[in-house]
Amino acid sequence: MKVLDPIPCQSEKHLTQLASVGQIAAGIAHEVRNPLTAVKGFLQLLEHESNPEYINIAQLELENALTTLNDLLQVSKPEQENEEPQSFLIAVELESILNLFQDKIYDIQINTSYYDTNSAIYAKKNQFKKAFFNLIKNALESMNETGSLTISHFAEGNEVVVCIEDTGVGIPNEKLSLLGTPFFSTKDLGTGMGLTQVFSTVYQHGGRINVESEVNKGTKFTLRIPVRNDSKNRGGKKLNLTYEETLSIKEYFLANKDTFEDRLLEEAINVKDKIDEIHRIGNINLLSNAHKLVVLIVEEREHELISFAKQEGSAWAKYSLTIAFKLEWIQAIRRTVWDFLYNFDVTKNNDHSSEFYFTLEKNINRQFDQFLNSFFIQYSRYKDELLDAQRKLLENLSVPIIPISPDISILPLIGAIDCFRASTIEDKLITEIGNSHIHTLILDLSGAAVMEIDVIQHLIRIINGVSMMGCKTVITGLRPEIVKLIINSGTTFEHVAELKGTLQVALSDYLGGNTI
To answer: What is the pLDDT of residues 374-411, one digit of tens each?
Structure first.
């Protein structure tokens, strides 16, 4: 059950097929017609009833159609990708991409085996990052919350080999040959464009793909990528930007806002697809915030920069957004800023010394680092405060002291009681008796699970402390399992508390028959 690529011309044939409009016309009609039909229907409804919900749905469906078309154009016409190739280490990028899935891999076992990690390839880095992202995403989605993902990397001959293997649902044998075809997907809601991008990227760089799969056992993708080094010393990339002699750096960035966004999205290839989701979850506009960050940095408004970082840190922590996406996004902004500064300097024909560039680099990178530092500190602080609030809430729930009269309260203990919870009970109970002047405490154990003997002894010490404060303890609902444990241990509650069979009996005795 394998798909091999032993024929040298197969990759060229695949690329030719992707560029053929005739082959994919049916797929386009199917994927684009449905959302556009929905848009048409909702717009017709708007003629009779003004409802913002309809407009939102129409806009969403239009975005789906445009995304499909954009994915198709990027795959079927790869010559439009103007990204410059560069030398990079695949193992480093694989680790970085794995970090983007931290919220999805709690129940998935991740196994990595990296050898020959210094074997670099010379290729279009962002295209490969997106390809590996798609493969790992598909692998995780193929497993129903549990399973294992294995990623290996090694050099063999003049190739770097990357294997991505999952224990997911697998792919039927008869469908393996269709992998990489636009709009073919084994997922109910998939478009197939992710794997199409993977095959295209590997083939464009002279690589090969091998797929092994078995239904209900898993799938393994093996990518073989040629090692090709570039001996040229490449400097910054020349961009086609708007420039006037009188423009300040801030005005220069603002005048080229659209180009900056395009370049930024090329750099942040894996965050690009998350922009709408992040905006929907946390109402965070990544592109707008990127422009704000750049302006604050080029104008050296450090106090505002720190305030902005704290605001961002709180927002990302509040909505539990994946922090690895933020880090990749900021680093992409940093690289894009340097591309623009390079072009600004070249356009002005400045012949600055190395000392000038060293100072400029140190200053700008320091501000980016300051932003990240303030962001992470605020993110951690917000999370710590949230955890502390949850801890306090848990403590209150685990020690629910219920007043039923001015001087009588009930403490019903439910569930497991360990040493930590016993300490919490001690602290909360002693404090509450002092503050509320409770005279009688009814301790109901009917809902408590079986306790260890050291926990029972701790409760006895707590009751002794309660007695020291002038408060009488009445214990109700002792279960047979707990009574047996007390008997066998030689411990007893009799000398420290009054015992009643049930909570109802205790309430009847102490409230004169007016039970609740």
So the answer is: 999 999 999 888 877 776 666 666 678 889 888 899 99
Helix (H/G/I), strand (E/B), else coil: 173: helix
Cα–Cα distances in angstroms (integers) from residue 387 to residues 337, 395, 494, in the given order: 37, 12, 39
pLDDT at 139 over 50: yes
Categorize the per-residue pLDDT at 52 as very low, low, confident or very high, splitting at 50, 70 and 90: low
Q: Output b/e per residue, 306-322; b: 16+ Cβ within 10 A.
A: bebbbebbbbbbeeebb
CA-to-CA dists, residue 2 to 35, 177, 179, angstroms: 36, 9, 12
CA 277 to chain centre: 11
The string of pLDDT tens digits covering residues 181-207 is: 655 556 555 555 778 888 888 888 889
Residues 120, 203: Cα–Cα separation, whole Å: 18
- The H-assigned helical ranges of 256-353 are 257-267, 269-272, 275-282, 286-298, 302-318, 323-347
Contact 137, 101 (CB under 8 A): yes
pTM assigned to the model = 0.55
Phi, psi of 243, rounded to the nearest 5 degrees: -145, 135
Residues 121, 160: Cα–Cα separation, whole Å:
8
Q: Tell me if residue 292 falls in helix, strand or coil.
A: helix
